Automatic annotation (TrEMBL):
This is Parallel beta helix pectate lyase-like protein. GO terms for molecular function: lyase activity. Pfam families: Beta_helix (PF13229). Keywords: Lyase, Signal. It comes from Donghicola tyrosinivorans. InterPro entries: Beta_helix (IPR039448), PbH1 (IPR006626), Pectin_lyas_fold (IPR012334), Pectin_lyase_fold/virulence (IPR011050). It comes from the Bacteria. Residues 166-321 form the Right handed beta helix domain. Residues 1-20 form the signal peptide. The keyword Lyase applies.
Amino acid sequence: MIIRAFLALVFFYCALPAFAAQYYVAPQAPADGVGSSARPFDSVKSAIQSGILAGGDRLILAPGSYDAITVLSDFNFSPPLVIGPARAHTAHTPQIFVRQGDGLTFYGINVWPEKANLAPDNLLETFSGATNIRFENLEVRGKPNANESYFSWSAEDWVTRWRHNGALLRGAKNSVVNSRFTGVAFGITIEGPDGLVTGNTISGFSGDGMRTLGDNGLFENNQIENCFKVDGNHDDGIQSWARHEGADGRKIVRGVKIVRNRIYEWRGPEPHPLRCSLQGIGLFDGIFKNFLIKDNLVAVTHYHGISLYGGDSSQIVGNTVVNLRGEQADRPWIKIDSKKTGPGNRNNLVIGNVAPKYEGIPAASRLNLLLQQPGREFVAPLLQDFRVRADSRLYQMKNYRPNAWVNSNQ
C-alpha cells in the first residue's frame, strides 16, 4: 500500500508540465512571503492572490497544521494549479473551501476538525462558481482519530460532537479521486454537472455514503461500508433524486453512471447498537434519464438493494445484489417503480443481474438470475466473500461479468 501510494505520487508530479514552477507555503510564515522556500507564503489564499502563479505550477505545503484553506477570489489555471505537500499526508487543515474560479488540484492533504462541536459542516466544499476542482489522495476524517475510534462513538458523538460531512461539491467538473473518508455524516455529495468520484473509500458514515445529484456524473470503483443509525435519515449507500426542471417542466437528472462500486452495510464488530439497515442504491424520486447502474456489489439487509423510481431509458446491468449475512433470503431486491408523484418508468433495461428478488420487472427471471443458494455461487458468503466460485453457473450468464466489482488494488 505504501509503495503504491508513493508511485502514484511520483507519477502524478512527473505528469505535470516540465516548465511548471514551484512555490511554497508554510504555517505561521510572515505575511510578506514571496513563495520561495526561504520566504514562503503564509497561506494558500495569499499565494493565489499574489498573481504570480500560473497554470501547471506546484504550490508546496510545508509539513504542519494550517488554518482552513479558503479560496474566495476568482482564478483561472490551465492546466490546474497543484496544491499539496511534497510528501503526502504531512500537511493538515480543518477544511478546504473554494468559492469560485477554475483549475485547482488538492493532493495528499489531511483534512479533519481538531476539536469537538466546531464548524465546518462540510470538510471539503465548493460553490457552483468553482469549476475543475479536483481532490485527490486526501485523508478526510470527522475526528482526528476517527480511523481508530468510530466504532466506539456514541449517538451523541455522531449527531453533535463530531458531525461533519465529507464533501459537498457544487461546481461543474469537480472530482474526488483515490481518497479516504472516515467517520463522517454524509460522505461525498456531487451537485454540479460532470462530476467524477472514483477510487474512494467511505468507512463509517451516519447519513448517505454518496449522493449523485448533477447530470453526467461518474461514480466508479468506490467502496462504501459501515453505516450507523443515529437519526431519522433513510440511509443509502448511493442515492440520487431529480432537482432541476427539464424543458417539459418535470424535474430530471441525466446521464449518471454508477459502475463497479462495492456497498457493504456492515463489516464491523457484532452486535452493535448503532448498526443501520442500509438501502443500497436508492433512486427514488426521478426522472432518471439514461442512468447506467452496472457491475456493482450491493451487500445489505434492507429490502432496497437497487431501486429505480421514475427511470427513463436507464439500464441496470450485471449487478450482484446479496443479503449481507450471506444466507438465503427474499431481500434485498432489484426494483423498478413509478416516480413517487408523476410519470412511471419507460424504456428501461434490467438484464444480467443476480439478486434474491425482483419487483416490477417484466421477464425478470428470464433475463436475470434469482439467487436462492448463495453458498453455491460465492466463495464464502457467510464471511462476506461474494467473489464468484470457479464452478458457479454465473459464468454462463449473459451480460454478467463475474467479479467485475472486485478492486484489483485491494
